[in-house]
Every structure is written in structure tokens, then in C-alpha cells.
Design brief:
- By secondary structure, this protein is an all-alpha fold.
- It has helices at about 20-50, 55-80, 85-110, 120-130, 140-145, 150-165, 170-195, 200-210, 225, 230-245, 250-270, 275-285, 290-315, 330-340, 350-355, 360-395, 405, 415-420, 430-455, 460-480, 490-525.
- The protein starts with about 20 loop residues before the first helix and ends with a helix.
Length: about 525
Amino acid sequence: MKKKEKIKQEKPKKIKEKKKSKLNIDLNKVYSILFFLIFLWIIALSILSSRYQFNPIFVIVMVIITFIVLCILFKKVNEKFKKLSNKKTWIFYGITTVIMIVLQITIGYLVRTDPSWDLGLVIQSAQEIIKHGHATEMAVYYVQAGNNIFITLLLALTIKFFSIFGITNVNISTLIVNTIFIQIAILFLFKVAKRLFNNQTACFALILAFLFLPFYPYATIMYTDTTSMFLPIAFLYIMIKIYDLKDTRKKYLYAVFMGILMFLSLSLKVTALIVVIAYVINEILNKRFKLLAKTLGIALLTFVILEVSYTTFLKKTEIMGIPYEETKQIPFTHFIMMGMYGTGAFSAEEWQFTLELPDYETRKEENIKVIKERLKEYGTQGYIKFLNDKAKDYTWGTGTYDFETILNSYQVDDNIAHEFLLKTGKYYRPVFYYCQIYHFTMLIAIAISVLYTIKRGEKNDILNIAKLSIFGLLIFLLLWETRSRYMLNFIPIYILVFVSGINYFHKDMKKFFKSIFIKNDQEKQAK
């Protein structure tokens, strides 16, 4: 008789934990309580008084039902996939990914657009670079949007590469590349969940990613929100490697990778760097100063080398059609000022105000002056009310992450997909409700995960960094210019913490029911 083959499954290694100091425990609890209260308040406001028109009672009921269904699904996945080998886990990942890519390409192609907003200008600039070697008519755009230089070059490379193979349709080339970027982010999510939990929980995280509807229409929008999606979750993966590896040289190699990601974050979407800040805070609180100094030192050195090389390239080539210095003329204070005006979202008036000022220093000074004046005008209560409205109406209030607004930007043709994904579509409302229910279920699960941190303390460094990163993003978007799509690159981290919330809740419920049955058995035996 043949011996039965042992099922191989990677067991998650425990990250070595030092005994946490009282300072660490106290500060973790303080930030967690603050995060939990602010987050719960924003969720409540977003459901009960949002500008987005939906039935709050229906959404609340459906969120409760959805959460229960997901807990049951989590239990079933853990039971059915418990003996799933590592090889079969990757097969499950492969099948799910193929289905997802097919849906992304199909839906993305159907809802393709000829964008009129910044993306349209960036694509036009990329085409000018391909044709002339530098931006021409669009050069002036980079005086006010120097942060979009890297995505312009990335689009130029994409368009040029596909043209070699005879694919000159920009919608098709960008759709393919953007889908790859989103899938890389999901791959990192899968690998991080696999490492932190187990194979079956990683599969559950993949199912949640599959069910996140905005991944499909956003495949057609190759912009900084989606191309940077892999960065925050990739930082977590690198941090896992730094914690796990015993070989010092390999640790330092991953520190180099961290530096590369830091450069890409600054070039694509600076919010991704919030994860690095969270990592630094976590290491300081855990008093791992030696490890932090070495890894961060190597990462920063790598970052500086790449940033200096990139800047030198832009200066020498003037590929954007203007001197590089002119692309650095908008101070960060402008975005804080704009984040305090009107809805807290983009404002053409605010741009005009800053651009009409003569130079960088004057702009910075005038921005700070306006910020102080607005704080005085608002007063404490007025500013809190403004932040409430900003959070619920333009950041956390929609589960579509504004894909309907983006897709409505000069769609190429009308088809059945628009009936589901545009506000004017016949079947838009059910899709909108689906997105709202998913979104608020995810936020509630994140809040539950944070609550467990308050109750027991988060023993897992990576989950602690993930939660601290979400809190950091929340604060950033309260202060900065905001839109709901600015959170897209953090969705893989949201889903990771979403899974942890369900995992914690499921474990507690399991203990609760187990204790009831044990108690009943003891009572019967006593009788």
C-alpha cells in the first residue's frame, strides 16, 4: 500500500515579539481609542447624514446581515480549506485571479473613457513626449501639477511599448497595464494574509478582494490612485521579511527594496509613505532602535540615490518641456488651504489664487495667512462641523469611491455596462447599494479590529502598523484636499484589517458559544 501523501501547508511563523513596554501599551491604547471614536463617529455620520442619497435604515440592516454572512463564510472557508495544501492554495489564487482579470478587462473596456480631467491632460502630455521627445503644448500644466510627472512618463512608456506590437489604442494599452498594477496589489494582499494568518484566511481575503466592485471599473483609469495601489501593502510585505529573516544581509536587501518603494511613493502617491511613518512609530514604541536605524538608514540612502538620479534626469532632459524648477512651484500649504475651503475637495478658485502669486515663497506665506484666517473664521465648533461634512460627504461616505463620476467623463460609447455603473443608468441604484453595504461592512470590521486592540492590545506588529496607517490616512485626508478615490491605494490594507476584524469576532463568538455549551453540560451533569 502506498503511504498517504502529507498535505503541505505553510504555517505562519510568529513574528518575534519583545515584551512591550508600558509606554508602548499606553500609547497604543490612547491612539486606538482615539482612532476608534473618530472612525465610529465618521461611519455613523456617513450612514445617517451623508449627501449621498440612500436609505440609512436599509443600509444598517444589510450591513448587519452582510457581516453575519461573512462570519459564516469565514467559518466555512476555514473548515473546507483547512487541509488545503500550499500548492492548491496557489491554484485557488490563480483561478480567482484569472476570473478577476477577465472581468476587469471586459468591464474596463466597456466603460473606457476619453477623460477631460487631469488624466486627459497627462495622456496628451505622454503622447507629446512620444512624438517630440518632450511635452510641448501641455508643458505649462506641470507648473501646477509637478506631482504628475512620473505617471506621465509611465503612461508614455506604456503607450510606446504597446505601439511596438501594433496596439495604438490608448484605452486598451492602459487598461492592460493598470489591471496588472491592481493585480500586483492583490497578490501582495494574498501573500501578507497568508503569512499573518494561514492559507484558508488568505483565500478568504482573496474572496473579499474579488467582491470589491470598484476594482473592475477603475481598471480603465490608469492614474496615480490605481498604479500606486501596490505600494502600501508591499511595504507591509517588506516589513514582514525584515522581521522574519535571520540573515542580516537579506534584511538589508529588503531595506533597499523599501527605499525603492519610498521613491515610487513620492513619485506616484505620497500617501503610501504613511505606512513607513507607522512603521517608524511602531519600532520606536517597541524600542527596536538598532533595527530601525539600520533598515531605515539603508532605505533612505536608496531613496536619496534614486531621487537624485531621477531629478538629474528631469533637469538635464527637460522632458516635461519646462525647466524642472518650475514644476516645484506649488507649496504643500496650498493643499491644506484648499482642504479648508468649500467642500474640502479640489477647487479651481483656490488653484487660481495660488498660481496668480509671483513665486514659491510668496505662495507659501499667503497660503499660511489664509489658513490662519480660515481657522479664526471657523472657530472650534465651526471647524469641527466642517471636518464632519468633509469626512462624511467627500471622503468616507461612498463605497463607489466616485467611479461613476470618473466614468462619466466623456465615455467612448453607450452600452449595457453604463446602465449599471453610471448615475443615469437603469440599474445603477442596486450597484450603488451593493457598494455602500460592502464599504460600511468593511469599515465596521476595521472598527471591530481596532476595538480588539483597545481591549487586548495588538500583538501582531504588521496589523498594528496597518491600523496605524489607516488612522494616519484618516487624519491626512481631514487636513489635506480630499476625495474618496484618494483612499483607493489603501484598499488592500483595508481588506487585510477587514479580515482581522472578522477573524477576531469569529474567535470570540466561538469561545462564547463553546462556554455556553460547556456550562449547559455541567448543569446537566450536576442534576
